[in-house]
Structure formats: C-alpha cells, structure tokens
Design goal:
- With 655 residues, the chain is α+β, with helices and mostly antiparallel strands.
- It is 21% helix and 25% strand.
- The longest helix has 19 residues.
- The two termini are 45 Å apart.
C-alpha cells in the first residue's frame, strides 16, 4: 500500500513540473478509476480504494422513493451501489425505447452522484435478477430456434442495437467523465450457462469498449467455483466471484485468485437474504450470520457488494421463475437490510455496525422508516367475467388459427390470453382434456359455456376431466406466470405451446383473444352483469371498489399493504397501476405493497381485482383490507423447502 501512495505522489510532482515548464493546460483535478495489479487494489484518483456496496434495482422501486432508499444506503456506510439494467424494461417492442418516469435510469444515476454514492453498473444484456426472462425481451423468441446468450447472429444483432442505445447514454456518467459509474459488468454469471461461447463474450467486450472507451473497468461475476469461472471469464474482463453468508471466505477468494492471480479481491454478490417462490417458505437469513461473514470479507481487505441491500417489488408481471418451473412472488423483499417498503431493519443496523469497524460512517440522522397507514376494509362488487368483458379486454377481436399460437406469435408478451374452440363431441361423461408435452405455460383456467371445469398447471396438472355438449364453447384462459430467469431455459415460450387433446383427439379451429387488461382497467371496466342472473364466482372475473383518503389526518396518503382475505389467486390494480399478483392459497406472501405515490387524495381511489379461481363474494364479505404491516411468511402449502442458502450457481444442482 505504501508503494502505491509513493508512486501516486511521484506522478503528481512530475505533473506539476510539466505544467510549470509550459507543457499542457493546468488541470484542477483528474478523475480516474482503475486496477493496481501490483498492489492488489483498486485505484481511485490515483489512491488505493476499497468499496463497500449494496444492490438496489431502480426497476423495482417507484421513482419517488429512489432518493429515500439511496440516502439510507449512504448512511449505512456504503461507498457505492450496484444496479442492473433490465433490457426488457426499456425496450418493450423492438426499436421502441422508454427511459422516462420509473424507467429514467439517468436520473437515478444523477441522484446517486448527488448523494455521494459511486455506481457499479450491471448492463447485461442478460441480468438474471429473478426478473422476467433474466431481463431479455420476449420478442427475441420470434425466431423460435434462437440461441440466447450466444453468437447466434440474430441475437447479436439485437444486442448490438440495444447496447448502441444504452451505452452511449451511460458514457457521460462514467467516473472519468464526471459521473458516478466506476465499473461496468459484462453479461452475468455466464459460467453457469450451457453455451460457454467465448466468441459471444469477446463480441460483448468489443461492443462495450467501442461505446464506453478503454478506461472503464469491465468485469464479470460468477459463482466461486473453478467450474463456473472456466466459461464465465475472459482476458480483459476482470473476474469477480459471488458467495453468501456461512461460506468459506478464504476458499472463495482463492477461487477468484485462480482466474485473477493479482488485483483486488471482490465479492460482487454477498447474499444478505434469498429469493422466494410461490408455495415455499419465505427466506430468512439471521442478521448475525450475515454480519459475521461480512466482517470476515472486510477483514481480508476485500471489496464487497451486498445483494440485495433493498429488494423492492415485482410490480405488474415482472417476476421471474426457476426450473423445474417455480414462479417468484410479487414481493422481492429478499430479507434484505432495507425491507420491500424501505423500512430500516435489525439487519440494517447490524451491517452498519460491522462497516463502522472498518471505515468511518457518515454522521447525521438516518432517514426514518416511512409511515404506513391502515385504511381498513373496502367493499368490492363484481363487474363481469372475462368472458362477459371480452369486447373491452380484446377490442381487436380474436385471431383465428387451426392450432394454438404462443404469446410471442400473438405479440402478447405478458399477462393473459383466452383460447377458445368448440367441443367436437358430447362429453356427458367426464372426458379427459390434456396438454401434450407439458404445453400449458403456465397456468390455465378451463370452462365450458361459462361453467368452470378446473385448472391445468405447468409440470403439475396436465389432464382435467370436463363435461359439455358438442358445439359448446371451450375456453382456456392462460396466465403467463413469469419467464425463467436462470439456467438454460430462458427461451421460455408462453401460452398453449403445444396441442390440446380431448380424449386423445387434437382440438383445432381456435379463436384466440390477446387480452389488454392493463389498458382496459386504466380506462375503467363497464358493469356487464345481467340483471337477475346469479353470478358464478368460480369463473375468472373482475371486481371493482373505491376508497377515499381520510381527511383531517396530516401526511396522508401514506404507504399501505393490501390483504385479500378469502380470495384465491389473481391480480390487483389501484388507479390503473398494476400492483402485481396475489396467491394467498399458496403463499408465502399474503399482502401486496402499495406505495403512496399511486394513491390520490383529491378523489376516491379505484381498486380493480381480477380473481381467477374463487372469491369470497358468494358466501362471505366481498372486500379487501388495507393494513399497516406486511405478511410475507404465511405459507399455507409447501411445494418444497430447504434450510440451505444457495448461490444462483448452486441452484441448478439443488433442483
């Protein structure tokens, strides 16, 4: 370390001599960030530097809360933040880009700079992140044979166009250009992917250098295993590793040394918690365990990024899934130091105490936990089934096809599609309706002439007995539960991806309705209930309610949580904002986080619920409840469980 400082001082004296001698224009400061291989450290402005960082995903946090979360991270003693860029969050359709409002990445970077946080940018194109398709846009699957994350020419062409938009925006935010970005990750955990395509990594390396220049530090991240580092690393990209609490820190960093004999030690993903799946326990990692391993990492003099420091929320349809198919819930709380709603936790203060042992903590007050308000019960009324509201939900009408089409073929990348055909024969006795080759992706709600028959589910329920008369409508409402985000199955097609048979006979002549539910909800659903009819609450249906913000109470509206007592599975919107999925019948998540920025005081707030299976409205009170605390660990049905904390790279071996 002393030699490093000495070299820095000698360089400064030489520079002053050259300036006084008339060479060049005086420079007040020269920002730089790089690697000192001789002394196994980073150099920031010519001086040895070690960062302590935390992950935050701007795509999972409302823009109005970015500053609050970043300030809390700064006050915990962090030098830097790490964030992913989800490609599909910004390029929803080919060539159509959105960097505004909650997608304003440059504003997020400016906030970090103003607060005094450096940024480690994980630019992709693939990010994993428990995000739909690992951040890759679903429209890439228009070429069904495409090999994602490889040298496939069509894939590379799309990546080149996207990076040609993203990276020039990032260049002015690089540290040497006056911004906060000190490092940029190329791809993500590529050593865990089956392709092992070094030409692909070289293409990305050249692409990033072309747009960002030669000064920025480019790096890779892989699990702390020689097996993963073999395919995930490339000369010219600095290799880092990831591992969680309870790991052998010495062994993990010796593994990094296998790829990088010299240079700084870096854990790019030190897990403060873990991800959840529907039907499994909510993951909880003790604060003491996290603090102990963090202290060991810092005692090594290593650089560390805590994944996650705040998890946030998978609003809308943005959650991912793992294989064998297990979708992740709406909450991405992750048992992180800051909760899903940005609350200060015991783990936050335990980590802050550890950091304080190794560096000076910023002085001053920590932004407090944001207040929550329990608005109470809100009554709902049924406005119609999906079948009754088809004209609103699919205004362009059906697409006709002999055989079923996938979501991608329909250019419907998220949400729901209704597949309709007619029964070719009488089914007075229970007759098996089957999906060939596990072709339900991911969950299907089956009815005949509006009479519910049951549910088909990917990899679990592939056959269902139905009844009905020849010529009556068979409706199959298919839900995209989130695309696989990790492993070799990112090419996750949705919908009916193979034929459906009735007693072994292939069903044909389909009318297929892509459902634009978000648009319809935003415009307001019209009540389609027929007077005198007894509603069938088992058929997928919509319910609407309203609630005002109480007057006379200061500082309202405030954050809150929706609880859905008696409801089974579905989706919730407030004032047209898609909060995400609920599934209390499976758990572990029973509440949805409602950020205050989507609530209004000037008029009653509108709530829309799409219940897919069974509401309480036929036998109990038809209501939702707003409470002031989340319930994330109330699993009623366990599909699987484990007490072991896995890295992403261990996950495939486990399952």
């Amino acid at each position: 370390m002393f030699c490093c400082y000495l070299l820095c001082n000698m360089f400064a004296l030489l520079l002053l001599y050259l300036l006084h001698a008339g060479f060049g224009t005086p420079i007040t400061s020269q920002r730089s960030f790089g690697i000192d291989y001789a002394h196994d450290c980073f150099l920031k402005d010519g001086k040895p530097f070690r960062y302590i960082s935390g992950s935050i995903h701007y795509s999972r946090i409302p823009r109005s809360y970015w500053k609050d979360r970043l300030l809390k991270m700064k006050m915990a003693g962090l030098d830097a933040i790490q964030t992913y860029v989800p490609w599909n969050f910004h390029e929803f359709e080919p060539g159509v880009y959105n960097f505004s409002d909650d997608r304003d990445l440059e504003y997020f970077l400016q906030l970090a700079e103003e607060i005094g946080l450096l940024v480690i940018l994980r630019a992709g194109p693939y990010i994993c992140a428990e995000w739909d398709m690992g951040g890759l846009p679903a429209w890439l699957l228009k070429k069904e044979s495409i090999v994602l994350r490889s040298s496939d020419s069509d894939y590379l062409a799309a990546v080149g166009r996207w990076m040609g938009v993203l990276l020039p925006k990032m260049k002015s935010h690089l540290y040497q250009n006056g911004g906060p970005i000190i490092m940029v990750q190329v791809e993500n955990e590529y050593g865990s992917y089956f392709a092992c395509d070094f030409n692909y990594l070289r293409y990305l390396q050249n692409l990033f250098r072309q747009h960002l220049g030669d000064e920025v530090v480019l790096f890779t991240t892989d699990g702390a295993s020689k097996l993963f580092l073999r395919c995930g690393t490339l000369q010219g990209l600095y290799s880092t590793v990831d591992f969680g609490p309870g790991s052998n820190v010495t062994a993990a960093f010796l593994t990094q040394r296998h790829s990088e004999p010299k240079g700084p030690l870096v854990n790019s993903e030190f897990y403060t918690g873990w991800l959840d799946h529907w039907g499994d326990h909510h993951s909880v990692i003790p604060s003491s365990r996290v603090a102990k391993t963090l202290s060991e990492i810092l005692a090594w003099g290593a650089n560390v990024n805590m994944y996650m420091f705040i998890g946030g929320t998978n609003f809308g349809y943005w959650n991912g899934a793992n294989m064998p198919f297990m979708a992740q819930p709406t909450s991405y709380d992750y048992d992180a130091p800051l909760s899903e709603a940005g609350d200060l936790t015991e783990k936050y203060f335990a980590i802050r105490e550890v950091i304080g042992m190794y560096k000076e903590i910023p002085q001053g007050p920590i932004p407090p936990t944001t207040p929550k308000y329990a608005y109470g019960e809100v009554s709902l009324e049924r406005v119609g089934t999906v079948r009754e509201l088809l004209n609103d939900l699919s205004p362009s009408g059906p697409i006709k096809s002999i055989y079923p089409l996938t979501f991608v073929q329909l250019k419907q990348y998220f949400g729901y599609v209704l597949y309709r055909t007619k029964l070719p024969r009488n089914c007075s006795e229970k007759t098996p309706l089957s999906s060939t080759f596990d072709g339900i992706h991911d969950r299907a709600y089956v009815s005949v002439n509006g009479i519910p028959q049951g549910v088909l589910e990917r990899s679990k329920l592939l056959t269902l007995n139905i009844t009905g008369n020849a010529g009556t409508y068979l409706d199959i409402l298919v839900e995209n539960m989130g695309r696989v985000n990790y492993g070799r199955y990112n090419n996750d097609f949705k919908g009916l991806i193979s034929n459906v048979t009735l007693a072994g006979e292939i069903l044909m002549d389909w009318e297929i309705y892509p459902l634009d539910i978000d648009r319809a909800v935003g415009q307001g659903l019209k009540n389609e209930m027929s007077g005198g009819n007894i509603p069938n609450y088992e058929e997928p249906a919509f319910y609407v309610g309203h609630f005002p913000i109480p007057s006379g109470i200061p500082d309202l509206p405030q954050d809150t949580f929706i609880r859905v007592p008696g409801w089974t599975k579905g989706q919730v919107w407030i004032n047209g904002f898609n909060l995400g999925r609920y599934w209390p019948a499976r758990g572990p998540q029973l509440t949805l986080f409602v950020p205050s920025n989507i609530l209004v005081s000037s008029s009653p707030n509108n709530i829309t619920v799409m219940e897919l299976e069974s509401s309480p409205c036929g036998t109990q009170k038809c209501l939702l409840e707003f409470i002031d605390k989340p319930i994330l660990n109330a699993t009623l049905y366990y599909e699987s469980s484990t007490e072991k904390l896995f890295t992403r790279d261990e996950w495939l071996d486990h399952i």
